[in-house]
Amino acid sequence: MTIAPLLSPDAFEGIEGMAHLCTGGESPWLKSQAEVYADFARFKGGSHKGRDKIYDRGERCRKRMGQLWNVPANRIAFMPSAAEGMGWFSRGLDWQPGDNVVTNNLEFPSVAYAWKHLRSRGVEVRLVPHKQWRVREEDLLDAVDSRTRVLAVSHVGFYTGQCLNLAQLSEGAWKKGALFAVDATHSSGVLRVPAHLTDLTVSSSYKWLLATHGTAPCFLSERVEEQVASTCFGWHNLKVWPEQTAERDPEVAEQPMPEKLEPGNPAMQVVMHLDHALGVILDIGPEKIENHARDLSELVSQGLAKLGYEVISPNNREARSGNTCFACNDGREMVNRLEERNVFCWGEFGRVRVSTHLYNGSDDVARLLDALNEVIRR
Is-contact 7 358, C-beta < 8 A? Predict the structure, then answer.
């Protein structure tokens, strides 16, 4: 089966002549982002009017992010990182001794350990074990009880690429009175993210969203906004102006979403780059990108199996993502050997991760499999 890229790899910097299959670690940079930086530089020198233009792009980015996640734009804030989004959620709830959090033991650290500080306050963190590299939704929900405050997961797991059923988890968590928090770093931009089924969704921007480090879009549901207290304050998330002038009053009201999660200026240059990347993703179409990535994932899995590699990613299509992973004792060494053949993947902790996005096609998969075959024969 021949699968053409949805966007030519020529649209990106620095990947000429290579099979770039490591978006799950770091995506390549769109050449058209140079125009965005030029706009930012010009706006930055334009005093108040220039700053207004920067923030206009920021509001467009907010709207585009809401469109991508199918939620209102005013529920989207820009956090410094996905870790800070999950950490803000963990700090803002009114925890009591005996409460618990449910997550799993195959989670990325910023999800698994966002609750670390709560142990000293008598809060239990339940790490549900995976079963042969599968995190089962029913196991997560079985661990949720009447004292569970939060069920926290990644939509797509960083280690195996497993895509969890958020509808099933959301229904089960809410039925038991728990909040549902999701890190969508490995799904945003490549799979459709139903943020409306969560209480918090946050994502890094430097992977599948095709932007860079410094901002993480974060959705907070209206139903829990009053339950989660702000834990950091500044001019942006407080009603300082025009209510006050130069002198500070003892009391000041807080801003609602989206400013609630933005105590100061977001990283606006990065937000502008994210805005541009979102325009590219939305123009192509989230559903089209999702199907493309899963089609390529199936090709990767089939080829790996023929070469005798143990694929640790799911076989069923709904649980697939842009990441397809196989077991490898020395993932870093394997990645180095593949790079010698101009095939770029990501390897660590006993596995290699192959990431297929909108600029990849079946030719990239063929190059990967040929390179792996050469490595086997050496």
Answer: yes
